[in-house]
Amino acid sequence: MAWSVLLQLSLDGGSGPAVAGLSRAIQLSVAPVFLFTGVTGLLSLFTSRLARIIDRTRVIQEALATSLGKGEGDRIEAERLEQVLAVQRRRTFLINRAILAVTITALLVAAVVAVLFISAVAALDVTAIVVPLFVGAMGAMIVGLLLFLLEVQLAISQNPRRYY
Predict the structure, then answer these.
(1) 104: Cβ–Cβ under 8 A, 6 or more apart, which residues?
(2) Which Pfam families match (predicted)?
(3) Which residues lie closer than 8 Å to 155 by C-beta, 6 or more apart?
(4) Which of 146, 136, 151, 149 has the alpha carbon at shortest distance from 105?
(5) What is the pLDDT of residues 68-108, one digit of tens each?
């Protein structure tokens, strides 16, 4: 299909309905591509947060091992560290699910771009495909952002109030 468009473009000498169709396809695909760029930025942010959570978990696990090795005197500290580790596990779960939801968003937006491009070039009406894909993408984005919000609230609740 793409080869036929390119063949038509070369035969038309770069003018005519083939160029207009290709131009329309590019115009229709531009807005979702900007959305796709924003989604990739969110994925980068989420993966950075996951890395920080993992780093902090490692430090807490080392402190817990040290605390348990000292004997009964540090049992209170060990219990506190175990509670902090439980919160870290919850944060890891939330940010992992946020990454999953936003990755699904990226896949759906990419599908929208592909379908829009194909429909513009092939002159097909694909509204019945594009609308559910886009609504699904927005639903996944909402879920991802809500999970991110929960993770941030959980992170804030771990810190003493004197910092904010």
Answers:
(1) 136, 137, 140
(2) DUF2721 (PF11026)
(3) 91
(4) 136
(5) 877 666 788 888 899 999 999 999 999 999 999 999 999 99
Give tens-digit pLDDT for 137-156.
Answer: 999 999 999 999 999 999 99
**Residue 84 identity (one-letter amino acid):** V
Asked whether 115 and 129 are in contact (CB, 8 A), the reply is yes
Distance CA 41, CA 55 (A): 21
> What's the length of the chain?
164
Is the alpha carbon torsion for 151, 83, 50, 100 positive or negative? Answer: negative
Q: Which residues contact 119 (CB under 8 A, 6 or more apart)?
A: 28, 125, 126, 130
103-141 pLDDT, tens digit each: 999 999 999 888 888 887 777 888 899 899 999 999 999
